[in-house]
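Hello support,

Our group uses your service weekly, and this is the first time we've seen a run hang past the timeout. The protein is Ferritin-like metal-binding protein YciE. I'm not sure whether the cause is the sequence or the server load. Input pasted verbatim:
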Amino acid sequence: MNDTKFDKDLEFLKDGPWDELSALTSHWKSDLEFYRDDLRFLHHLTDKYFMWITKQENLDMVKELKQGLFELGTMCTDLLAKVNKHLVQLGRLVENPNEADAGIIKTEHEHLEGEMSQFVKAFRDNRKEVFAITEYVVDSEQLASIMGN
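Update from on-call engineer: The timeout came from a worker crash unrelated to the input. Re-ran successfully.
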């Protein structure tokens, strides 16, 4: 089976366009920095409600949720480090294209693209879960009346 789109993508990456890949990688970095800040907010949100929880079932849900946020934070930090390293490597290729490095950088870029996709999916799923559980806990614990809402 011949996948012409994949072949075209490989041909496209063969000699660059390193500046375009660098711009894309810069966007990934910016996105990851936003996700990192959003994860901090979600940690704050869960901490704010955690202290008011009285039901063991809700405590268990929030503990599990916080563990998921911690794992996402670790993934984000690791991915941000990889993206920063990749950005430096692309910058070097923009300044001085080197055929020997091109294949490695291309493969790394493709791998990072997959990791970014997986992270964004996990982040979105987790974010939905945070809000669903927060809403459930607020309702079940009747926290809205305690907090003056």
